[in-house]
Amino acid sequence: MYRSKYEAYSFLTEDPKKTLACDFEILSDEVASKIGFLASNVKNIELHNELKFITEMVYHLNPTLRTFLSVTQEEVNELLKYHDKLKSFTAGRCEMFVLPFGSRNATYSHIVRNSFKSLSRIAYAEERMGHSVPDLLHDILGILSNYFFYLSLYFNMTQDIDEIPFVSRNYFL
């Protein structure tokens, strides 16, 4: 296999049948960049700092499948504090599913939310391949996905934009 001397990342040629660590790292880098982009559109200093904290956390999560989970329980507790605050603040905004519509920041938060589900899927696949994946990593990725869902509700709420409910023909909840 040809190895370019201009290769952007040294693990790009890893066999994905043996490990998905590189895929996890590439996607987590992309997610961190998306959060940075979202933060560039946020004027609220407190929220901007939250997004910076989360971006740094994502970069600490990045090498977890290859090395170890370096995110501390204190950092997870801080993340849960942010998550719970948004969940409480946006309570009653939706009953079940909503369309990913609304303000620019809300719709982009939905994109980030979904990216965390993709990271979670990779982590579960890595575990199915026989590799050890910390339970806490799965928890953190779920918390982050939910955080960005609540953040999308928050952005729409602060701009007086109603959520558009989505009623699935396939899931009867």
Features:
single chain, 173 residues, mainly alpha, Hypothetical Protein Ta1238, Chain: A, two-stranded antiparallel sheet, 2 strands, 59% helix, 2% strand
Describe this structure in words.
By secondary structure, this protein is an all-alpha fold. The protein has a single domain (21-166), classed as Hypothetical Protein Ta1238, Chain: A, CATH 1.20.1200.10. It is built from 5 helices and 2 strands; from the N terminus they run H-H-H-E-H-H-E. It has helices at 21-39, 45-61, 73-89, 104-128, 135-158; strands at 97-98, 165-166. It has a two-stranded antiparallel sheet with strand order 1-2. Helix 1 (21-39) packs antiparallel against helix 2, helix 1 (21-39) runs antiparallel to helix 4 and helix 3 (73-89) packs parallel to helix 5 (135-158). The longest helix is centred in the C-terminal third of the chain and has 25 residues, at 104-128. The radius of gyration is 17 Å and the shape is globular.
